[in-house]
Structure formats: C-alpha cells, structure tokens
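Fig. S4 source data, part A: sequence.
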Amino acid sequence: MQSIEVSKDPTVQYLLRLGDTCLVLSQRLSEWCGHGPVLEEDIAMANMALDLLGQARGVLARAGERERRGHDEDQLAYLRDERDYVSATIAELPRGDFAFTVLRNAIMATWLELMWQRLQASSDDKLAAVAAKAVKEARYHQQHAADWVVRLGDGTDESAARLRAALDALWPYTRELFDADEVDEHAARSGLGPAWSELREPWMAQMQALFTAASLDMPAEPKFRSDGKRGSHSEHMGFVLADLQYLQRAYPGGTW
C-alpha cells in the first residue's frame, strides 16, 4: 500500500513526536509477551505496552484531526515511511535484557509522567483529556520500573553489572528527550504543551534519586546526539516498522 504524507505543521509534528514515541516504545515492550522472567512480569509488561498503545492512539488520533487531511490513528501508525516517524530514538532500541528494559521503562515513564502532568493544562481540550488518563498510567509504570531498578542495582553482582551496562547503553540517547526546537517553541507559545527542554530539570532530579537508591553513579552529560524526533533514526527503526506495518501493508484495509 502506498505511504501517506503528513503535514509539517508544528502542531501536528509536536503531537506526532509524542504519539510516535509511545507507539514505538509499546511495540518494543510488547516483545516481552511470552518471554518475561516470571509470569507476573510477563503480564505486567504486556499491560504496560497496551497502556502505551492507548496513549499513542489518543495522541495520533488528535494529530490526524488537527492535520485535517483525513488521516486516522491507524493510517498514521501503519502507512508512513520511516523518515516520517518522529519518535525519540531511545524508544526504538532493541529490547535488550531485563535490566535494559526496566531501566528504559524508568527513564521513559518518568519523562512521560512529567509530560502528561503538563499536558493536562494544554490549550487543546482533547489532548488534555488524553493526558488526564495517561498520567495515572505513567505513574504506575514509573513506580514499577523504579522498584526493579533498585532491586537489580542493590542485588547480586551480576544484576548490578547488567544494570550498569544498560545505563551505559541508554544514557547517550537521553539528551534527545530535552532538545528543543521550533516545534517545541510553537507548542509552548500556543499553550499546546511544554517544550521538551522544560522537563529536563525535574527529570534529572528524579533520576538522581533513583540512581542513588540503586547504587548507580549519575553519568556525565552525554555528548552524543540522536535525532529520531526529526526523522533521523537508528538502524533498528526499519526492523520495528517491518513488524508493526506488516499486516496493513500486506492486506491493505484489512479488518478483523
């Protein structure tokens, strides 16, 4: 099926950045379904993936409405080319081991909780409604992931080593979560939502507290800059989309 083209309007792009990040992270987290270390965690991660998918649906649906080109959340999820996705790169990284997953969940859930808190005051009433529900889910995700980070960091030598390795791999990608540009500036001016840079200080404070509890050292400011939020993705994104888009591409317009 032919790909769709999406508007470069900053309002639409701001919404897509958030919706795409939730969508791609949901896809990665769903890969644990049937592979969790224990049954309870298998179910918990599947449920969190579904929460993220619901958040993505709400934001992508609103992006389609604001775009006014007739694109619904399904078309935006399944029918764009790779460079038209504007998710944060950290979301597309391979799932890794359990330590990698729970640390990424802690990083992203903390960020998302801060984002949803602020979006409850959005000038867009529909986005504010999505945020009011999503902030409760993100709070649970953060608490769940943080509990595991502390347990692994303060556990065995192997669990602590795996957690440190996960931090080394993930930390360089966190800088992108706080890069601001003209899309963020437009959102802040219009009241649509905060510039991503506004979340950095409270996020860093929460990460510092978590790392202290988990016996982790706070890494230095990363120099590496990923740019998925502007459509420049890692080599992993194509594989994510191949799985995500397969059915809709193979059977256009197919429904259950």
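Fig. S4 source data, part B ends here. The two ends are 18 Å apart (CA to CA).
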